[in-house]
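Teaching soon. Invent one.


***
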Amino acid sequence: MSLTTTSRAELRSDESFTRFCELVADVPPDIRVGDRSWSVGDVTRHMLSVVRRYTIRDLNSRDGLSPTVRDVTELNSADVEALEHLSHADLLDALHTEWSKYLALDVIMEDKVPFHFGATIDGFGALGNMLAELLIHGYDVATAAKRIWPIEDRDALLALNGVLQIAPVLADPVRTARVRAEIEFRIGDGRPQVVTIDRARCRIADATSTDGRRDVIVGGPPEPVLLNLYQRIGLLAAIRRGVRLHGGRRPWLIVQFKHWFLMP
């Protein structure tokens, strides 16, 4: 954990799962989503495949994980294609069945487990990642269908717990080859975090454990921070939702920040 203290019970994400299923059950499955490469049905297939990555594989093994962002993209596409034979109704039934298995998993929250890209995260991060998948893909479907998709700040903060554990291995070695910067994030009521980029190396630490002047200090509600980091909204939209610069030596670097990281 990094941003906030939580528990396995809080990270069960039942409410977010129910909301996601109700949404995709009520929206025509052929509506195109995001960049239009996927439909609502494809997003639902993707969510089933994501849940199965927790339920049908050994969480302590790297088997079935992807070493690079490109490999994750290819894996996602292959998994969606493999489920095209299911009707939307059968897909939703399978998703509920798999979710029951997910809830029964014996995840030891403090243990470290392997993740995509060669990353290692704890159980809080792993379950936080599942929550992020539900929130972000629910947002994608709702946006395409012109529906409202509220994301509670507490849920966004819990999802960011996982995001911040994964982020260091996603730093783009080309774009950050000459970058040296310290950016402090003050997200909601979470513990402030410092992202340090030092010539293609990235680390994230509690702000109270590091010294030095920050290049950027930025803060705001967890929901727009989450959507911005997942590249669902731009910086201006995040500002309209409450994200603010609080200072730093080179505040303009916040414009470049998200471009320093690879995204699946």
In short: The longest strand covers residues 180-187. The radius of gyration is 18 Å. The CA atoms of residues 66 and 75 lie 8 Å apart.
